[in-house]
Amino acid sequence: MVRPPCCEKLALKRGLWTAEEDAKILAHVLKYGTGNWTAVPKKAGLKRCGKSCRLRWTNYLRPDLKHDSFTPEEEEMIIRLHAAIGSRWSIIAQQLPGRTDNDVKNHWNTKLRKKLSEIGIDPVTHKPFSQILADYGNIGGLRKPGTRIGSLNKDLRNAAMLKSEQSPSSSLGFPSIVSQVMLSTISSQNERTQDTFLRNNHNGNHSLDLLAELQAIKLVTETSNCIKKETIPLPIFVEDSLSSSSSSSLTCSTAAKEKSPPDLSWHDFLLDDAFVPADPQEQDIMAEHSSKKPASQKQDVIPQNETPCNEAAAQECAKAKGMEAAVPRNDFQPSSSSDISFLEAMLDQQYDMCLDFPNLLEEPFYY
DNA sequence: AAGCTAGACAACCGCGTTCCG
DNA sequence: TCGGAACGCGGTTGTCTAGCT
Question: In whole angstroms, how far apart are CA A190 and each of A88, A112, A183, A251?
């Protein structure tokens, strides 16, 4: 392995920390506080780079950290936040006092992802595998039932294999199994949240997922300082904002509800964008162009000068690539004409891709 | 008892963002 | 305004350990 330049040049120590080194860091922080980590190794008498010291402090030595195992409540929180905002581990960790982003990330990768897969939930999309498989089979009407599944992610394929081994006659029919296992696994105490979780993960509309994700990021950012464990603003907003029914089982905190607008739509994320043309047709064109942007662009913050629709389009396009290219149009009821034009642009593009590259959809690729 | 394997967790790396002179 | 340093984040790799053969 290649060492980073600073460590290479100074022959700095790497690898696991000793108790003596930990003590030096602790003593230094007690004396000087945190900050200016590049100076810490010298001041504390350590042969480590400052970055290593900072990491050791933030991930392990901080006195407010919990070192015991994750509780079912914390696990449920991680799952739900991940469903809403993806792998923004630092944001998720902020909602779990005493946990670091590294903790959360490791726990997700080693336990939760597998747990979800085992009960038939895709840990990437947080949807039942059966639904993803069904959607995958419906891409543009091109895919026939029973065709090979090649581009699904590893977890999905592994779990699909597992399930088909366990019950060969119904490899596509485990939503009921999923529901039962979820009810006993995710959390044994909170049936109300389980129900919401399940329903939201079964609702099956990817566009709604994306909207929920954006809303969750917005809300988490806004309310991160006033959150208690019992009133965490769980990111289940889809029903609140887009559905007229079934409001009784929502798990948003009261505070969160008070802070969030009653009806969120795409417009809530359009922040005075001077580049958004008023003409819906032009918006469609822009959406189409922007969806061709590199998927590697950062999306942590919704930029002031860029339409979230465009960012969302790029993100949605990347997600849809391997997951579900076909979203039933009649499942979604947009709240404005720009919502319609955005969605139509996306759906039209997906449809065009299906027509242009049927071979791509027919030919699976493997990781 | 030795070797192998998988799980869990700690640490590292690279890149993007922010800060500051 | 610019460039470098510092910082933060997410993905990946390394290491240790328990369980199994």
Answer: 25, 18, 9, 10
pLDDT for position A139: 57
Q: Do residues A122 and A128 make contact, with C-beta atoms less than 8 angstroms apart?
A: yes
Distance measured from the CA of protein residue A244 to the C1' of nucleotide C10, in angstroms: 37
Query: Cα-flanking dihedrals φ and ψ of residue A70, to 5°?
Result: -70, 140
Residues forming beta bridges with residue A128, ordered by sequence position: A121
For residues A163 and A361, what is the distance between their CA atoms, to the nearest angstrom? 24
- Residue A266 CA to nucleotide B6 C1', Å? 45
Which nucleotide's C1' is closest to A56 (Cα)? Answer: B11
Report CA(A108)–C1'(C18) in Å, whole number: 21
Cα dihedral A75, A185, A202, A346 sign: positive
Contacts of A127 (CB under 8 A, 6+ apart): A121, A201, A202, A204
pLDDT tens per residue across span A113-144: 888 888 888 888 888 888 877 776 665 544 44
Which residue is closest to B6 in terms of CA–C1' distance? A110
Paired tokens of A182 = 């979820």
The pLDDT tens digits for A188-203 are 333 333 333 333 443 3
Which residues, 6 or more positions from A64, have their beta carbon under 8 angstroms from its beta carbon?
A97, A98
- Tell me how far apart the alpha carbons of residues A21 and A45 are, in angstroms, rounded to a whole number: 9
For each of the domains in chain A, give its residue range(s) and CATH number, in order of start. 5-61 (1.10.10.60), 72-207 (no CATH), 267-362 (no CATH)
Taking only the tens place, the pLDDT of each residue in A160-219 is 444 444 443 333 333 333 333 333 333 333 333 333 333 344 333 443 444 455 455 555
- A38/C5 CA-to-C1' distance in Å: 9
Protein-proximal nucleotides of chain C (any atom < 7 Å from a CB): 5-16
